[in-house]
Amino acid sequence: MSDLSQIVKAYDIRGVVPDQWDEPLAELFGAAFVTVTAADAIVVGHDMRPSSPGLSRAFARGAAARGASVTEIGLCSTDELYFASGQLDLPGAMFTASHNPAQYNGIKMCHKGAAPVGQDTGLADIRALAERWSEQGAPEPAATAGVITQRDVLADYAGYLRGLVDLGAIRRLKVVVDAGNGMGGHTVPTVFAGLPLDLVPLYFELDGTFPNHEANPLDPKNLVDLQAKVLETGADLGLAFDGDADRCFAVDERGEPVSPSAITALVAARELAKHPGGTIIHNLITSWSVPEVVAEHGGKAVRTRVGHSFIKQEMARTGAIFGGEHSAHYYFREFWNADTGMLAALHVLAALGAQDGTLSELVAEYDRYAASGEINSTVADQAGRVAAIRATYESRPGVTLDELDGLTVTTADWWFNVRASNTEPLLRLNVEARDAATVDRVRDEALAVIRA
Q1: Which residue numbers delimit the Alpha-D-phosphohexomutase alpha/beta/alpha domain (predicted)?
Q2: What is the pLDDT at residue 309?
């Protein structure tokens, strides 16, 4: 039997084209998606990768053959597809491999209202059907095939986002945006149109071969061009989007990266001003600053595991108004609990433009601690090394341990989390403390145990 375990991940489908998957398989995924969701209509979009239009159209054909009408929205960002799913109340599929190299592609799927499709919410069933059909032949077509139509939702998406953030009274700002040849080059000009911004575009040409740098702003080397351009142009800030433009990173007027935890805290404060007493979701590797700021602004902070499915589940369960991850994914109740870096970017622009200070001065209030960033270590025995960490720290006075996600070790002055990668033989370490010297000391001690 065909085995699709290498490309069907926990939250999406992702692999090398055409080696691991191709258009005939995409067609089967389309048929399986419609079968599992019992949808009579779906919406489909794609990014700028060379393989995306063909894969997307094949998926649409498979869905239509099973009787579902398909609305193709064409080139779009992932959060634009979520918008279409929410606004049209349809299940959706987005063809993208986000920040992965050019030879990759994938599918992010959602139920209607942008609710996530993951292993436990349909993806395992979609995989099982696609495996069976690839072995035994495609399913019988429906008596009446669905109709495939095209619709451009970019202007509606931009208008919806601008309706959520008041940018009318801000001072004029100069902003450099690095789209990394990804979908930000498609969405930013429309979303920012008419706002009091002097836009300096970097790599807005859509090119799925990523000729300038990887579209992964989480890696510091991919921010270098943006940082230089901010300094060269005297800009107020810089924004960097990943390949499918659902994550957004900021750099301040000095070219220094702004911690996504600080952005989470800033946006949380703004959302709590609109929705007093609301709940804010944050994952366990965001800064101590986040729950502190939430409490100071009268909100309730809820801590979760790392990963968008956990955030979205908690958003729905608690009725939270906003959620943030240290990976620069930002989730909004007003956006169907889905993540949108663009909306977070508009909040940053609104906050900065509403006062006269610099971005570095603005975020200082929300960036209170020193942090190591995520440090990966290749280990042969992940569980054994985590057990060694536990043995090292559990009997120390003033130390508390929890296992919400991996192992978190906390004291009054510092904390660290160590957790295993699901896909690689890695342990990931994050350390935060009240000062940089303590971060260095705790980091080095933890790494000595992890890498022993």
Answers
A1: 6-134, 157-255, 263-369
A2: 80
Q: Which CATH code fits 156-164+172-257?
A: 3.40.120.10
Identity at 362, one-letter amino acid code: L
Please name the residue ranges forming H helices in 10-51: 23-37
Which residues does residue 419 pair with via DSSP β-bridges, in sequence order?
A: 428
The β-bridge partners of 407 are: 418
The DSSP element (H or E) to which 430 belongs, if any, is: strand 426-433
DSSP state of 339: B
What distance in Å separates the CA atoms of residue 408 and residue 290, rounded to the nearest whole number?
A: 17
Please report which residue ranges of 247-307 form alpha helices under DSSP H: 260-274, 289-296
Q: What tokens were used for 17?
A: 């084209």
Cα(298)–Cα(39) distance, rounded to whole angstroms? Answer: 41
Q: Mean pLDDT, to the nearest integer, of 427-432?
A: 98
How does pLDDT run across 268-308, given as a tens digit for each residue?
999 999 999 999 999 999 999 999 999 999 999 999 999 88
Spell out a b/e string for 211-225, using b for 16 or more CB atoms within 10 Å of the CB, else e: ebbbbbbbeeebbeb
Task: List every span in the chain annotated with CATH 3.40.120.10.
Answer: 13-152, 156-164+172-257, 260-345
Write the burial class of residue 51 (CB in 10 Å: 0-12 exposed, 13-18 middle, 19+ buried). buried
pLDDT of residue 310: 87
Which residues make Cβ contacts (< 8 Å) with residue 74, sequence separation at least 6?
45, 46, 150, 152
Asked whether 386 and 406 are in contact (CB, 8 A), the reply is: yes
Taking the whole predicted model, whether its pTM rises above 0.85 is answered as: yes
Query: Tokens 């977070």 identify what position?
Result: 344
CATH assignment of 260-345, among 3.40.120.10, 3.30.450.20, 3.40.50.720, 3.40.630.30: 3.40.120.10
B/e letters for 90-127, b = 16+ CB within 10 Å, e = fewer, are bbbbbbbbbbbebbbbbbbbbbbbbbbbbeebbbebbb
Distance between CA atoms of residues 104 and 93, nearest Å: 16
Q: List, by residue number, the catalytic residues.
A: 98
Tokens 């911004």 correspond to: 197
What is the rounded CA–CA span in Å between residue 108 and residue 376? 26
